[in-house]
Amino acid sequence: MLTSSLPQSSGHATFSRAAGSRAVLELLASAMIRIYCFSLGLGGLVSSAPWSEENSAWNVNLEAMHDPARYRGDWPGHTYFPSPADWRQLAIYQLITDRFADGDPRNNEALEGGFDVRDMAYRHGGDFAGLRSKLHYIKGLGCSGIWISPVFQNTFNSYHQYAQYDFTLLDRRLGTLAELRSLVEEAHQLGIYVIIDVVMNHMNDFFYFEGYRGQTTPIRIHTASHTVAGIPEYKLVPKTAHASLFASARWCGDGAARWQNYSNAATGMLSSRDDCEDECASDPGCFYYLWKDDPASDTAYHCAGFGYCESTTPYHYGKAYIYQLKTTATWLNKWCGESPLWQEFGNEPSGNLRSRRHCRAACEDYAGCEYFLWKDDYWANSRYHCAFFSEIACDQISNYTYGAAKIFHVSQDADQHRALISTPVGKQPYADFWFNNTWIPNATYPGPEYDWWGRPFNDEGSCSVCVPSCRVQNTCTNDGDYGTYDDSDFHHNGDLGEYANVYENLLGKIYGALDDLRLGHRRVQAKYIAMTKALISSTDIDGFRIDTPMQVPLAFYKAWAPAMREHARSLGKNNFGLFGEFYVAIGRYSTMMGRGRDHTLNLIDNVTTMNGGIVYPYYWYYFTAMVYNMSHLSDGLTIAYQEEGRRLDTWNPSTGRKEYLQWTFCNNHDNWRMQSLVGDRDALTMCLAMITFWPGIPLHYAGDEQDFDTPGSALDGWAREELSMSLAWRGLPTSSHGNPADGDSFDMTSPTYLYVARLNALRRAYFGNFGSEECDNPVTLNVSHVAVFVRGCSNTSRVLLIASFHRSVEQSLLLPVPWLNGTMLADALLPNPSESSLTFKVPDNQTISVQVKPLQAMLLVPMPVHQVPPTVIKVTPTHDSRVDCSSGGESLLIVNVSFDRAMEEASLMDGQGILFDGEAAGFQCSGAVCILSLSRASISEGFHYIQVSSSARSADKMTLFAKFTSHFFADKSHGKIAWPETYASGGLICNDGTALCHNAEGAQWFRAQNVGHAWSPWLRYSRLTRWKALSGIPVLVQYHAQGSASFILADCLLIVPPQTKSTRCYSSWHSSMYLKGDINNWGGSSNISERQMRLVDDFTWGMNISMLSASRVKLVPSDDHWDQSYGHNQPHRPLVYNLPEFDPREPAFIASSSSREPVMYGTEATRQWMKNRSLWSVHESIASGTAGASEIWIHPDCHVDFDCSPSVSDEWQCHSFSMGEDMSWCQAMMDQGGPQGSCWEYRVRDWSSSELDSCGPCACCKKRVSTLSHTSSSPAGNMCCVLFNDLLLNYSVYPSSSGRCQSAPINSSGANPTWAWPTTITLPAQTPAMMGETPTDSCSSHASVISLMLLAGSASAELILS
């Protein structure tokens, strides 16, 4: 039997009402849920990376001693999988784990949070379990290697996983060590090698450079910067104090601030927001501060500090924000020690239970109080709880199981953003890498290091940063000026700005946002080597993809790479793969490959580092040729391969031969998808054929095989779609049929999937296991606008690849071929090449005539064409389709499975060959078709699965390469899973608001919330759930089905006594929405109607505004704080696409760049793409709630389409010249009004006038050109209707006269039905889970559902313990 009690009170307060039977049930249910789910790691912070019982489920390190250089891994009883004999035989599939398949929704917010399926910039739940369930899909594509995103723990959101703060603890949102091992084991059973992305250059962002908090920090090396000598490098300051956005346009008190300063000069505390924050942090009584940086207001800057902020007094003096600096939670759902210093709990908001601020204030006045617990949980037995603890008590942390609570640290130095960790060297932001601000006067950096051209540089002291005063005729004059913080594990040098500067590139903080590790130091190398060895030992992975190696000292790789290979060999992995990200000039990456070559082409030494890497020159040629329609660049592949042949050391010491192991690709996770920019699938398929047969390892980016085409850069999240059913891309319909990423995309019969599968099958058929240097010797032919080459691993396995780079012109070619006259050739890329009429007979002169269509790829081989494994080419019902099985429809359902050729019937009908729902259901097979007839009435509602075993054989005795799977949904009740595009439905709330009546057959899990309250835990799906709905408050239910949690359904009920009169109301994701911007002083107006939006339809907020000029706005769910707001995901910025630096045409290409429209990224680039294809009008766009979202601009004529993006400042700015630009160019731009399509006006500086003084010392100045005025004849401007869908995140702006801001009719059909309840609820006897052990199935089905029923409250339920 379960028993529990609240922590003993010190005598201050008791419950404000007696705990009746309902309260007992609530408490029991709450305890059950937390006991069942605690093993998932849904609460608590990571304290350190040494092994412990607490972190053992996620730790690849088994060493309990806190000595990172001694960390170690192991997999007891496991037999390690051998390395591939030749990496060239692989095709690799790249995926972002979070954006693939969600196998277990219960871990989606574990530890750090950031899960939101609505927003493409947030986590969507993909994990190891989901990926494991889809390995057959990847193998069926012909990929025998997978590259997955980094696996270690990141902070909030960080779905991409590249901002880790630990290198041994797995990110709990991805799964446990056991789940990662299961993924690797199953991959190996299928012959798939697993490559994990590792990051060593940087970690998270837990430091700032002293004196530069929140600012770009100039680089310093030893005692010099680019402009000043004699100043040492920076001390590091942990970012333990960090404010959160609290409110806008508000003054925190009715009277004066504790202190304030305002001016038009950015000095002192007004120098930056961080200087203002530092002022507040140094004041023990300052908990909030106001910051304004608004050049458009009378005073540009304002900084003020406050002790509290509960007033709603408006701020009328420009765009200002309030930030809350202190009392950020240190622990979630934890309890300190055995007894508190003092506590109070109850259900009434009185005394110190009125607010968190009152609880905190009481702690400050209580002797010895260093931490306080605060709970305001509507669903808990006692809603409020305030408790005080000493610092010593909080060294003993246990679980708090009485609701959702947080513990805060009250300190006098505002040390509360992220708790520092106890380490052997004291408190540190990171568990295993430690900073030290001790200056070591004579310390140097390792060398030589190499620049982008492969030239060696040694540390020259302060001269390494090229301070002009340090050099005379390019000779260093203060050679002895060295020193650095050598005892620190991090670089102290400032932000990386100039990538071409050797030491700045290696020592600078990348993006100014990620702490740079001192990897040139042997101490730091030893730690990282131990950690990555542990990862190999504990998980049996096969290789590493190495992020940003061009920012890492070569000395690190000369130590780390041999250590990895030696350790892997000790496990029987004799050809462990190390592959870098070579987003850098060939001169630089040639130093990192093999033994390395410098600019003289000499080997650097005899130590092998990386095998190869993701290589960009070929991509530049593909992309530039397609996007800019420059088909003549087809010759670039030959140019690049010849240049690499000169420079690269491809010797592989593991195999004793040369192997070209570069990864070539058409798309990846950092760029636009080529097919979206070009608008032609043929551009992708041509490129895919090229990378398959060109030397190297073909890399396939997840989603290309399903024709994903979301516009926008993958860096912004646009082109990082998941393959499971998604919600985030429903707001971006890239065709009249929607977005390809909307539904479940694991379709093994899609045309591009089958095309890629055939490409990879042909590659295996002709090149086999490689194993020869001859494989890397293509013979290229010089043909204009067409890439043509012959390649093979022997004389008997050669192929001729033809790929047209022309997008519109068909070409006639005469091509010499290596085969004897009379040889018949066929195009092996055709589905049935032997039956095709398109064949070629080699004449006596061994030259054939070929007609090549635009963007066509052909693979000519001697007949007969090598056979490839059979494959399923069609299935009906089609993959993920919805089949009507309701009464009154057709009686029979025909399931049809079609193969690409005749199959051996016995292999299909042996009871395992072809299955329906896991059983041999009576398929009838003949030739290439299998048919199953089913009665629709007999089919249960939900998902149904069609499988074909990999042992199924064709008539020519070849088996499938991978198991085939497909599914469809049998719909009988128009449920949520069958109709995911239905977002609101009457009848979800039922039984007069006391229950939820689910119609979501096919769901496995669900969670629910009354909007504005906390989500319930994830629970097993059942049709009926007790629930306490609140009148006028929507209920949201999120279902998990088929690897996705993107099934959202809502209902809202106005419960009017008597309850039979209850009617529906609009549903929404948020309980309120405010439009804040220039038009209403960022919400500072005293009239709430000037900012408050209202629901005009389900999930749709509307508001009419008067527009006189262009205005910036954001959409904010709360009027009290800015914890979240919606705007644009990334500003409008150009991406740099170029030709490789070794191409002689590169200077001319750069010089002509102003005549080409640049490829942009950010929301505006996506909006333009949608508008240009008539998928959106000028009135529509999409928003994001990401923390970095920028403001939305609204045009005064009621749309969002600007010829030139407006600017808040009309001041002249300095223009920095790009290549090909000079003062003559500036004069020409001034004369012609700027470049074509530009939004800038240019001016040559007139030094006799003060008009351009804001341009600073520059001679060429520019300023934004923008259209800001309305065209209405009314002096009041235009009335515009702003609409925002807070589920799909689309927004639009129309003239109010369109009537779009008028309320839509509410559909009350199906509202408030009544379902029968069971009279008795039976709970299981005490289980291992209840006793604190990990159950086989955490949060088990019946106990979890019953728990939620009890939690919502039913006084009539009978509780029986058996």
Features:
globular; eight-stranded parallel beta sheet; six-stranded antiparallel beta sheet; disordered N terminus; 23% strand; 1362 residues; 15% helix
Would you kindly provide a written description of the structure presented here, covering whatever features stand out?
This protein has an eight-stranded parallel sheet with strand order 30-29-28-3-2-1-34-33. 15% of the residues lie in helices and 23% in strands. β28 (543-546), α9 and β29 form a beta-alpha-beta unit. Residues 1-47, 412-417, 467-475 and 1318-1362 have low confidence and may be disordered. α1 packs antiparallel against α20. It contains 20 helices and 74 strands. With 1362 residues, it is of the alpha+beta class. The relative contact order is 0.09.
**What is the β-strand count?**
74
Largest sheet, spatial ordering of strands = 30-29-28-3-2-1-34-33
Biggest pleated-sheet summary: 8 strands, parallel
Beta-strand content bin: 15-25%
Number of helices: 20
Helix content: 10-25%
Topology:
Elements: H1 21-37, E1 92-95, H2 128-132, H3 135-140, E2 145-148, H4 177-189, E3 193-198, E4 207-209, E5 220-221, E6 224-225, E7 236-238, E8 244-248, E9 250-251, E10 259-263, H5 273-281, E11 288-293, E12 301-306, E13 313-314, E14 320-324, E15 329-332, E16 334-336, E17 342-346, H6 356-365, E18 371-376, E19 384-389, E20 397-399, E21 405-409, E22 421-423, E23 426-428, E24 449-450, E25 456-457, E26 471-472, E27 475-476, H7 502-507, H8 522-539, E28 543-546, H9 554-570, E29 577-582, H10 586-589, E30 612-615, H11 617-627, H12 636-647, E31 651-652, E32 657-658, E33 663-665, H13 674-678, H14 681-693, E34 697-701, H15 751-767, E35 779-783, E36 786-791, E37 799-804, E38 811-816, E39 824-827, E40 839-841, E41 847-852, E42 857-862, E43 872-876, E44 881-884, E45 892-899, H16 905-908, E46 914-916, E47 924-926, E48 929-935, E49 942-948, E50 964-971, E51 989-990, E52 995-997, E53 1005-1010, E54 1019-1020, E55 1024-1026, E56 1035-1041, E57 1044-1051, E58 1053-1054, E59 1063-1064, E60 1074-1077, E61 1094-1097, E62 1100-1107, E63 1111-1116, E64 1133-1135, ...
Parallel strand pairs: 1-2, 1-34, 2-3, 3-28, 28-29, 29-30, 33-34, 44-50, 73-74
Antiparallel strand pairs: 4-7, 5-6, 8-14, 9-13, 10-12, 11-12, 11-14, 15-21, 16-20, 17-19, 18-19, 18-21, 22-23, 24-25, 26-27, 31-32, 35-36, 36-37, 37-42, 38-41, 39-40, 39-42, 43-45, 45-48, 46-49, 47-48, 49-50, 51-52, 52-55, 53-54, 53-56, 56-57, 58-59, 60-63, 61-62, 62-71, 63-67, 64-65, 66-72, 68-70, ...
Helix pairs in contact: 1-20, 8-9, 14-15
